[in-house]
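TEACHING EXERCISE
Course module: macromolecular assemblies
Task: Read the component lines below, then compare them to the predicted structure of the full complex.
Student: A.B.
Group: 4
Components provided:
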Amino acid sequence: MTESNKPSLEVCLSPALLNLFDVKNSIVVIIDVLRATSTICTALYNGATRVIPVSSVEECVNIGRAIGGITAGERDGKIAEGLVHGNSPFEYPREFVEGKTLVLTTTNGTKLLHMAKDAVQIVTGSFPNISAVCDYLVAQQQNVILGCAAWKDRVNIEDTLFAGAVVSRIRQHFDVNCDSAIAAESLYQMAREDIYSFMKQASHYKRLANYGLEKDIEYCLTPDGANVLPVFRNGELVAAE
Amino acid sequence: MTESNKPSLEVCLSPALLNLFDVKNSIVVIIDVLRATSTICTALYNGATRVIPVSSVEECVNIGRAIGGITAGERDGKIAEGLVHGNSPFEYPREFVEGKTLVLTTTNGTKLLHMAKDAVQIVTGSFPNISAVCDYLVAQQQNVILGCAAWKDRVNIEDTLFAGAVVSRIRQHFDVNCDSAIAAESLYQMAREDIYSFMKQASHYKRLANYGLEKDIEYCLTPDGANVLPVFRNGELVAAE
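Instructor-supplied answer key:
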């Protein structure tokens, strides 16, 4: 708690900066908008029992085989060799994913998740579940770190924009004394009228658009399409009750 | 050089991220707006022969004694024990500094400078010398990294704003494929009408305002008050011819 008697709300723009934050005394929101955390909430929203995030393709294959889960993950925009599904939220409709376990390998998001393992609680956030994330954070009355997964440690626009959107929604409940939070919120305020157009400048947009994934990007930037809260417990993400 | 045949222009928001950039093939601009790089260009503009940036107070005292230089530096907003002057640009008018050597100890800026030592060239930038910096960068036709000194590795608003101001001025001469550069430029575009008011949200503003340094802040955010280009050579900063 800070002097104002409100909990703090901070934004960490890259996993390489997480060591500067007091993770142990905070809730950490893992943000990997394109597309890991958007796909995670979508799968859970559509009835997946749990999502197990893993770092490597090998781990994904082994765990998937052991528990009979759906193995998913991409490298360079294609389904990784040995896996069966990709990173797109559209691959996980209810008729496919309900009652199943998704074993998902991502690079940036999973790395950050493991770095944040000592947090009070880890949840994942993205535009499709922004309201669930904000409601949860306001209710907890604890310090919050919005952790951007970034791209190989480089700050990216989409995760920063989502962090800024959260700051703009919930800041009155928190003490915001963090320049990254102020910068992220300003960026979001500037972009909010047309986030999709703004994103066209971003490096990740160009990568994904080259793979024909504009529809994915649009979904991943739209609020509340899959409004559940993924909570990390015992190595897996489950939808909060 | 990139595919567009223009050199690249990137922004590094914190020294902790500098390892992600190709320093060896770039000009690095060291940015420590409040107040190290503003004071450096001011001292050189007012006729100082050179500025020697050092990390520690001890080093500052020893070098200052050895060469008969002005020793300067602050810790927590006060002149550091053993030194004679502070970090304020207003302490270095022509009648005081002309023909002299300033030995300046700063923490964030000096750290970044040493990290960037393998760069093609190191120069320092801040609003008081923004035009000199931009003219130089456009003329060189080389890759550029705008390196924010930040605050103990945490991203800060003032250095990000300056980086964004440079991007907005010179981007047509460069290939800008860097989300941090796009975010910094957007932040600057949002703040440009009244940078001083925007800065009132920043954590560093609050620290300095507590010490009564609003006048310093205003000077440090105003373009071209001391329009020379400090270039780093053999351990010291001198004004470019």
